[in-house]
């Protein structure tokens, strides 16, 4: 499974739009406001786990989702935990190529949200 990308691919509008165009991608991003495993996302959205893993991979590659670390599952296995990297995404189609502007999630917001959900 991919980790967070910082090699410039996350600013590629085509990759971002392609990832968002896939079924369940938006639902995964909405559900990943707090750190969740692929299994938890799959259960929350009620989609097959294999589909969830594919969408997660695409969203991570597009820079919209990041792996925040690993934790033990109920079965005692180490699982990746994911969270979305942004709260808003604006797409501008007025030029020859689409441009994106993002409202990134700050670490402070992540920590505050984590405390509120504990």
TrEMBL record:
It comes from the Archaea. Residues 95-118 are annotated as: Disordered. InterPro entries: WH-like_DNA-bd_sf, WH_DNA-bd_sf. This is ArsR family transcriptional regulator.
